[in-house]
Amino acid sequence: MASYSILAFLITLLISAAAAHPAIPSLIHKACSQTASNLQKLCISSLSAEPPSANADLRLLSIIAVRIAANNASQTAAYLSAQQTDAAASGAVDPMLYQCVADCTDLYVDVAEQLDVTTAAIDDEADKDAMICLDATMADVTSCEKGCGAVATAEIRRRNDGAKKLLNITISLTKLLMAPKGL
C-alpha cells in the first residue's frame, strides 16, 4: 500500500511539473534553428515567453518577434529621452555625448515606428515590404552605434547590441516567410 501511495505521489508530481513547464512548440525550435547560432537561445526564450507563440504559425511567430523588437526599441527610446532630459537639467553636459543621445533617441523612435509598419506588412503578407522596413531599422541602430562612437556609454552599447540581436532574429524569421519551402 505504501508503494502505491509513493507511486501516486510521484505521478502527481510529474504531471504538475509538466503543467508548470509546458514544452516549447517544435515550430519555435525549427524557426529559431534558422537564426545565427549565437541567437538561437535568445530566439527560443523570447518567443516562448509570449503566450500566443504556443499555437502560432511561422507568420505569427514573425509578428511576435517584431513586437518584441518594437518593445525593446520603445524602451530604449524612452531611456535615451530620459538621459537627454537629465543631462540638460544637470547643466554638466558633454556636448558630444548629448548629441549622441539626442540622435539615438530620434533613431530609436524611428525604429519603433518602422517596426509598427513591419508588423502590418507581415500581417498583410507583404513580406518584401517587411524586409525593407527591417533593413531600415537595422540601419538606424547601426547609425546610432556609429554616430556615438567612443562617447557611447556602456548602457547605450548594451542596448544597441540587444536591439541588433532582436532585429537579426526578426529578419531571419521574416526571410523564412519568403523562402519557397518555408520550414
Automatic annotation (TrEMBL):
The lineage of its organism: Eukaryota, Viridiplantae, Streptophyta, Embryophyta, Tracheophyta. This is Pectinesterase inhibitor domain-containing protein. Belongs to the PMEI family. One of its GO terms (molecular function) is enzyme inhibitor activity. Keywords: Disulfide bond, Signal. Residues 1-20 form the signal peptide. InterPro entries: Invertase/methylesterase_inhib (IPR035513), Pectinesterase_inhib_dom (IPR006501). NCBIfam families: PME_inhib. The keyword Iron does not apply. It holds the Pfam family PMEI. Residues 23-173 form the Pectinesterase inhibitor domain.
